[in-house]
Amino acid sequence: xAMSDFDFVLFGGGGDLAMxxxxxxxxxxxxxxxxxxxxxxxxxxxxEWRRExxxxxxxxxxxxxxxxxxLDEAAWKAFxxxxxxxxxxxxxxxxxxxxxEALRDDEKLTRVYYLATPPSLFAAICGxxxxxxxxxxxxxxxxxxxxxxxxxxxxxxxxxxGRVFAESQIxxxxxxxxxxxxxxxxxxxxxxxxxxxxxxxxxxxxxxITIAEELGxxxxxxxxxxxxxxxDMLQNHLLQLLCIxxxxxxxxxxxxxxxxxxxxxxxxxxxFTPNTLVQNVVRGxxxxxxxxxxxxxxxxxxxxxNPGSRTETFVAVxxxxxxxxxxxxxxxxxxxxxxxxxxxxxxxxxxxxxxxIFNQPISSFQPNSLVIRLQPDEGLSLNLMAKTPGxxxxxxxxxxxxxxxETFKKPRMEAYERLLMDVLRGQLTLFMRSDExxxxxxxxxxxxxxxxxxxxxxVFYSAGSWGPGAASALIGRDGLQWREExxxxx
Length: 490
Fold this sequence. Notes:
Blueprint: E1 6-11, H1 16-30, E2 40-45, H2 51-61, H3 73-82, E3 83-87, H4 97-102, E4 110-115, H5 122-131, E5 139-143, H6 151-162, E6 170-172, H7 180-190, E7 204-212, H8 221-224, H9 228-246, H10 255-268, H11 274-280, E8 281-287, E9 289-291, E10 294-296, E11 314-320, E12 330-336, E13 343-350, E14 369-375, E15 379-387, E16 395-403, H12 404-408, H13 415-425, H14 434-453, E17 459-462, H15 469-476, H16 483-486
Parallel strand pairs: 1-2, 1-4, 2-3, 4-5, 5-6, 7-12, 8-17
Antiparallel strand pairs: 7-13, 8-11, 9-10, 11-12, 13-14, 14-15, 15-16
Helix pairs in contact: 1-13, 6-14, 9-10, 9-14, 10-14
């Protein structure tokens, strides 16, 4: 699907997300052959900058985030020539006239409004765009997370934006779905016959999905204290990855066909009760410790922290999907800050062999597993038992590796590049539909209510560890281990 000519309006153009991710991604796309030669980027913000000042700002703040091998000075200069800046107050309809003047009046153009702003501004921005006559049929609006704090607020966001834009014009972004490895998970499942007969309860023992960060809360305390790991990571990123793993084969790759199947997974997730919550959900918060040999403070000691904060920086959940394919297969979801390593991966573990014919106990055999690495290095590993060299028949775990960078010998497309390209093409497959968003909140909300009612602290874990011991106990009750705990020592 080709890109048509466009005006890309970036609300929050002076913000951190714009500088770290969006401007570098737009620059990278501008170097592609299919990028319209007259496509423009119009940044919007409160700062009373002139265009030249904004170019200086993105050169200072955004340019360093472009990989050195992809940075070309001539290409950067050409990209900057596409960029304009408009100063306005997003909440004041009377300040939108300069934006209207900056946009081209051409029905053939695609208009994209990217709201890299707090969600509290979504309704005002969309309403003001409508009042200014800018919410045209050829417009698209991109919503950054967090998309609500709970089910009620998510429904309100959907209603507020939906009064201005049709569902087909709304792109709710989750950058994890733009990662190369997630695309390859779809290709692996639905482009090959090999795994489909095994992708079910008869052969799979469990599925583990982990997003771990070495970093602490950093300068995001104001946001994070009111969000926490459950809202920030599990409700969106982890549940979306679970849907990709567990969905049934769609009839085709069209957006609604894929999203229909993801929605079925969310609706099939077993709902929590107060009793099952105690057994199947772990809430943690990091205390002081060491990360990569460096001493770091606990969450409550971070800058601007609430010394009595109960905000979780770690969540582990055992989820179950009540369908014929997945009944009885546990899905373990885990995310945390100040962990032992930074990684994001999906581990599909198959069942153990029923009997050993070798002079080696079954307990020494590691189950086969498929590991989909999302970061830091995107790729796939298939773990198999193989004979070690030499006399005798001794088996050891080995990996069949697929490293995307090494295999394809071409620059990878970053997640935001892919998703922005899909926005410009009008391709909705990798974006959440309103009913998906609400179904995810419906499943998560009992956890939030339970935590609000309980007057107790999160379980503490040392910075630089893999989380609280309760997370190991969660999976250990089923006779299983997290992947890093199960790996054999060299």
